[in-house]
Amino acid sequence: MRVWIDQDLCTGDGICIDHCSDVFVQLEDGIAYVAEAGQPLNDPGGSGSLAWVAPRNVADVIHSAETCPGECIFIELDDPPVEPVDELA
Ligand code: SF4
């Protein structure tokens, strides 16, 4: 699962950081950004602003998206693993 924030809609209230400070950070501009391995991804609108979510943070990130007053946390579900096709069956 990956997550990104539309900074144009963020109110800067910090609710997402309260829920999951591993994934969400607030920078000097007062706006929330996603982070990966502790590194903020501050490339709004760019593909570099999409952060991978560790399994231990999935529930908190979903809760953050559900409660975000700006409705600006977006979750991208990764494709499920493809089952190998047994061509001899
Ligand atoms: S909860 Fe939403 S609106 Fe609030 S700081 Fe986080 S991303 Fe911004």
TrEMBL record:
Coiled coil: none annotated. It comes from Ilumatobacter coccineus (strain NBRC 103263 / KCTC 29153 / YM16-304). It holds the Pfam family Fer4_15. PROSITE patterns: 4FE4S_FER_2. This is 4Fe-4S ferredoxin-type domain-containing protein. InterPro entries: 4Fe4S_Fe-S-bd. SUPFAM superfamilies: 4Fe-4S ferredoxins (SSF54862). Residues 1-30 form the 4Fe-4S ferredoxin-type domain.
